[in-house]
Amino acid sequence: MENEIALVVERHFPGARLDTLKRLTGGVSADVYRLDVLLPTGSALKVVLRCHGPTHSGHDAELEFDLLGSLMETGLPVAQPLFVDTSCELLEYPYLLIGFVDGSSTAAQTMADKHIDIMAETLAMVHKTETEAFPVLPPRLNPLPELFDYLPVGPDWQELRDNLSKLENTAFGGTPVLLHGDFWPANLIWQEDRIAAILDWEDAAVGDPLSDVACTCLELRYIYGEKGMLRFQKAYSQYRDVDENRFALWQIYTAAAAQHFMENWGLEPSREDHMRRTATEVIKEATALILRKDWYS
Question: Which of 31, 66, 199, 259 has the highest CB neighbour number within 10 Å of its CB?
Fold first, then answer.
């Protein structure tokens, strides 16, 4: 693989050579590498290679590249898109080269309340972003009926299934907003108390902002427990109202989808067990709200 990536460097940076190559962890549907490139001038350049592989499930490389370019224009903290190649001449799959952003995502393990508040502020900023000049993104407006594909089966869940099947008006009725789709600590690069870059926009969409909020809350609960989740929810609500009924519905969707796909994430068994138990807790808590009688009519 290193020889092929060296050819990628030569194609996009004429006269340069690959100095070092480091695979970055955390990617599920793309193979991600940091490349240290020596330019003909003698200076060094760090770039990131995102190679879409056989398990890639997000946007195609060209859409991801165009989206990053549009995001750069808005002033959101994102990595600069440099090149995209879908020819599959040098690598087996399409790839992107993007700028490397110095910082750390491991700060997530010691995140203080103020960092959770900054996350909420940043996600609210994403949701305020104008998208008229963006490439066309898929809608994400209604967790039903896709939710039924992800819900656990069995008698314990039948009452919830029956009640969900009776719901009406579950589609988001507001103005669709830009959604990141996977806004969690590992997709953020921190420089001290500042988010320097939001990574991995391959699941971006336009739609209901509460779908993003539910995703982030679940991820924070995995790491920091209920306290971290509630802190984020409260902080986000300072920027945009959080309808508890719609939020509960997106919580069930997000947690059930996570359980459905989790076996493909390459998690350690103990970590997967913890996340499955946490997701089940979230589903049960949100279900208690859903089963109230004051739902949609």
Answer: 199
